Amino acid sequence: MSSKRPQYPPEFRSQIVELAKAGRTHAELAREFGCHATSIGTWVRQSQIDETGDTSSDAPLSTAERQELTALRRELRQVKQERDILAKA
């Protein structure tokens, strides 16, 4: 059975990112705050993407773009369901 990954609040993530940018190692922060060093690395990279605003086609999505994409996919799924219901009527 798979376990769920812990969800860390944005304030916690930003605090960890600031400490990492100040020179603390990911492993050190992971031990101190009880999260995985890989997660910290992901948060730091995402923070750099968000700060630079790189919009090239091969750049990873910023947090805002990722949220927008999720919302658009949810809306598309709902519209398709509504369309299918109307088609059956």
From TrEMBL:
GO molecular function: DNA binding; transposase activity
Coiled coil: 62-89
GO biological process: DNA transposition
This protein's name: Transposase
Domain of life of the organism encoding this protein: Bacteria
Swiss-Prot/TrEMBL keywords: Coiled coil
Organism of origin: Lampropedia hyalina DSM 16112
